[in-house]
């Protein structure tokens, strides 16, 4: 009997016959192509960076924090795990990544702020309405109500009061206006700014280097007015499905635990959303790939990248039958 080679292994899919699905190596190669972590596909400038971010939807900056999501520096380097240079100020890859995360948000081509895992995240504009609808789902529309109801810290409320009175403001001016200018208030200000970024209340619009370094801050709803208006038409359940589908198409494979880590839904919310996506043929659940976590979620994009289209249609049809 002929022995099956590793990339010919048959993988079991719950609820359907066991098709020959991709191996771990093939999936990793597909992720490298999508994340531009190969020398031939690396990011070389603003145009390719914008195309990359529009393709993946979400990316971190200098690390992916074990999530499997792309990060800009790796795509600039054209390597999956680039080595941190000894002299970062003279490294061209670090320099280009830093430049791109400054210039693309400044031109309103993308969103950049602390979002997924509370880490600096680059987000394609097409995905921003769903982010607003999901991450602000339990937050009152008016910041004063959020503060009075105990859903916003005192320092964050003070910052928003200052920005509603005058915006945008550079950090030193914002700290004075919010009553947080004392050196002893630095940590409180930083925590509050992170809280407001994660809640999509404020956005950093510029990094000023002369005459002194400072960030410029503005109200999110002012900076991204169109996305905020679009978010009002998206229910939280729909937003969760959109974000899960987008993340899975970017990750190619994942697990419920990792998706929960990124989006923080309840187990019930996650189960309903994944079930709906499975019914619509957006993913396969319960996939077993040797070398990857058990009961994997595999996106349709992964299959489209690795199998002939007619085989994909047959596989999805079998899974729905």
What order do the helices and strands come in, and which of them pair?
Elements: H1 24-35, H2 46-56, E1 58-60, H3 72-77, H4 92-106, E2 110-114, E3 120-124, H5 128-135, H6 143-148, H7 154-165, E4 169-170, H8 171-177, H9 186-198, E5 202-208, E6 214-219, H10 220-223, H11 225-231, H12 236-251, E7 253-254, H13 256-263, H14 267-279, E8 283-287, E9 296-299, H15 300-306, H16 309-320
Antiparallel strand pairs: 1-3, 2-3, 4-6, 5-6, 7-9, 8-9
Helix pairs in contact: 5-11, 5-12, 7-9, 12-14
Write a structural description.
The chain has 321 residues and is α+β, with helices and mostly antiparallel strands. It has three domains: 6-24 and 233-320, Arc Repressor Mutant, subunit A (Orthogonal Bundle), CATH 1.10.10; 32-126; 135-231, Winged helix-like DNA-binding domain superfamily/Winged helix DNA-binding domain (Arc Repressor Mutant, subunit A). It is built from 16 helices and nine strands. Helix 5 (128-135) crosses helix 12 (236-251), helix 7 crosses helix 9 and helix 12 crosses helix 14 (267-279). The longest helix is centred in the last third of the chain and has 16 residues, at 236-251. The radius of gyration is 22 Å and the shape is globular. The two termini are 32 Å apart.
Summarize the structure in short.
The protein is an alpha+beta fold.
Q: N- to C-terminal separation?
A: 32 Å
Q: What structural class do the secondary elements suggest?
A: alpha+beta
CATH class categorisation of the largest domain: Mainly Alpha
Total helical elements:
16
* Helix proportion: 40-55%
Query: What kind of sheet is the major sheet?
Result: 3 strands, antiparallel
What low-confidence regions span 5 or more consecutive residues with pLDDT below 50?
1-19
Could you say what the CATH topology of the largest domain is called? Arc Repressor Mutant, subunit A
What count of structural domains?
3
Please state roughly what percent of the residues sit in beta strands, choosing from under 5%, 5-15%, 15-25%, 25-35%, 35-45% or over 45%: 5-15%
Strand order of the largest sheet: 1-3-2
Report the order of strands and helices. Answer: HHEHHEEHHHEHHEEHHHEHHEEHH
Number of separate strands:
9
* Estimated radius of gyration: 22 Å
Name the CATH architecture of the largest domain.
Orthogonal Bundle
Give the CA-based shape: globular
Look at the structure and give the mean pLDDT: 88
